Amino acid sequence: MFNASLVLLQAKVLLCAPLRSRSFIKQTATFKNTLSATQQFIPMASHDSTENLVWVDLEMTGLDIEKDLIIEMACLITDGNLNIIAESRDLIIHQPDFILDNMNNWCKQQHGKTGLTEAVRKSTTSVADAENEMVDFVKKFCPEKVPLAGSSVHVDKKFLDKYMPKFTDCLHYRIVDVSSIKELAKRWYPYVQPPTKNATHRAMSDIHESIKELKFYKTTLFKPPNQGPNM
């Protein structure tokens, strides 16, 4: 809709003001590029932000809350029907070499394969920088506290509580954990097979896969009483 309107507007300018058309097209192209770079999907005016969900995925140097640290964070906002409203930047958080060198073998292999380890070495973003940016991002789209969502997101929340308390203070105490729904579906509807995950173990792509999985459960299992789950 936006693109079609933009093309019509450009055509009118070309017909009515040929001397100014190149400048106008350049300006509108710049605007489109800026809109794309922000990764924001503008909600409808009637949208109720209290129904939003704040999706978060972290990559860490391990799962031990006492010694391991956050190295990547992404955040995405959906409405209550899982339509994407906005995406944050994918933030790579710097950690010193001795931390990365002491990761367990799984993390060394996985984060090395995806290029995350090297990106962490080169990053200049601190945990505080990342927290401040994510707080601003969430408050922009969720003025009231709404639940945290994700897959096995209780693990992410432990690290957020410890290292980014200002961020978790913006959120409701409830969480939406897709992994819990997966476990119930396996027991109650074993014939229902959720979509296969790629499990890239990169923050933003993992969020998108979690949303895709929850959408599957929404359309397959969470049906009106007179319909029941899809068989």
What do these coordinates show?
The protein is globular, with a radius of gyration of 21 Å. Strand 2 and strand 3 form a beta hairpin. It has ten helices and six strands; from the N terminus they run H-H-E-E-E-E-H-H-H-H-E-H-H-E-H-H. Helix 1 runs antiparallel to helix 2. With 231 residues, the chain is of the alpha/beta class. The chain has one domain: Nucleotidyltransferase, domain 5 (2-Layer Sandwich), CATH 3.30.420.10.
Strand content: 5-15%
Q: What is the CATH homologous superfamily assignment? A: Ribonuclease H-like superfamily/Ribonuclease H
Which sheet architecture does the biggest sheet show?
Answer: 6 strands, mixed
CATH topology label: Nucleotidyltransferase, domain 5
Query: Mind telling me the CATH class?
Result: Alpha Beta
| Count of spatially separate domains | 1
SSE pattern, N- to C-terminal? HHEEEEHHHHEHHEHH
SS-derived structural category: alpha/beta
Domain Exonuclease: 52-223
Pfam families: RNase_T
Organism: Phallusia mammillata
Subunit structure: Homodimer. Homotetramer.
Key terms for this structure?
single chain, 231 residues, alpha/beta, 10 helices, globular, disordered N terminus, Oligoribonuclease, hydrolase
Short characterization:
With 231 residues, the protein is α/β, with parallel strands linked by helices. The protein has 10 helices and 6 strands, in the order H-H-E-E-E-E-H-H-H-H-E-H-H-E-H-H. Strands 1, 2, 3, 4, 5 and 6 form a 6-stranded mixed sheet that branches.
